[in-house]
Specification:
Elements: H1 4-7, H2 15-45, H3 50-73, H4 80-99, H5 103-125, H6 131-157, H7 159-190, H8 195-213, H9 217-224
This protein binds (1S,2S)-2-nonylcyclopropanecarboxylic acid and fe (iii) ion (3 copies).
Residues 32, 35, 60, 63, 118, 140, 144 line the site of one fe (iii) ion.
């Protein structure tokens, strides 16, 4: 089905567009910074993977720089207070889990939930982005699959002993994703990104990850239902 938004010409210099961009761009910049911090933290929790995790952290730092350049290119100042507020709950849950040494919960939050969110958002953004941002985002999204894969591989290798903690972490964190999507629905739509498409791509990436780790279709259905009602 052709998307009307990709046919309609977006005016990247329009004030409405730039206002919405100031919040979405901030979310992405804040998200990349937090992702970078989270991978450093994961490297401390998982010393045998420390070098690999430091490498992923550096990739996130580069993503942040790329998206800052996208904002400058459109002459938009990112609303970083909004970005921090947007991630506050999920970030708080990651930090609490890290303080308690709950590695599996931290991996679920960063490598499965946040990476799936990034993959959905960037894939939906690419066709409607300005040419400068499109190039940057195309480079970034390839990396995000690698990040998701890191979490998948580790959790797959430790599935039996991680299963219960994964289910609990899913129950506590997936509802936050739907709240976050609701918060940006209007701004995203001004940029040509529809919430339904974001949800669909998120669920595909997240569901495939859970399947690769070892969950059954039945488990995935049950786990996906969390938060949808809330
Ligand atoms: O791993 C990463 O690089 C993740 C930090 C980035 C998350 C980006 C989340 C974007 C949500 C944007 C919502 C716009 C509709
Ligand atoms: Fe990233
Ligand atoms: Fe990203
Ligand atoms: Fe990432």
């Amino acid at each position: 089905m052709p998307q009307l938004e990709t046919i309609t010409e977006l005016d990247f210099q329009n004030e409405t567009y730039k206002d919405a961009y100031s919040r979405i761009n901030a979310i992405v910049i804040e998200g990349e910074q937090e992702a970078s911090d989270n991978y450093i933290k994961l490297g401390e929790m998982l010393p045998e993977e420390r070098e690999e995790l430091i490498r992923l952290s550096k990739m996130e730092k580069r993503h942040k720089k790329g998206f800052q350049a996208c904002g400058r290119n459109l002459e938009v100042t990112p609303d970083m207070d909004f970005g921090r507020e947007f991630f506050a709950k999920l970030h708080g849950n990651f930090q609490k889990a890290a303080a308690e040494g709950k590695l599996v919960t931290c991996l679920l939050i960063q490598s499965l939930i946040i990476e799936s969110f990034a993959i959905a958002a960037y894939n939906i953004y690419i066709p409607v982005a300005d040419p400068f941002a499109r190039k940057i985002t195309e480079g970034v999204v390839k990396d995000e699959y690698e990040h998701l894969n890191f979490g998948e591989e580790w959790l797959k290798a430790h599935f039996e002993e991680s299963k219960a903690e994964l289910e609990e972490a899913n129950r506590q964190n997936l509802p936050l994703v739907w709240k976050m999507l609701n918060q940006v629905e209007k701004d995203a739509s001004i940029l040509g990104m529809e919430k339904e498409a974001l949800i669909e791509d998120f669920m595909i990436a997240y569901g495939e990850a859970l399947s690769n780790i070892g969950f059954t279709t039945r488990d995935i259905m049950r786990m996906s239902a969390y938060g949808l009602a809330g």
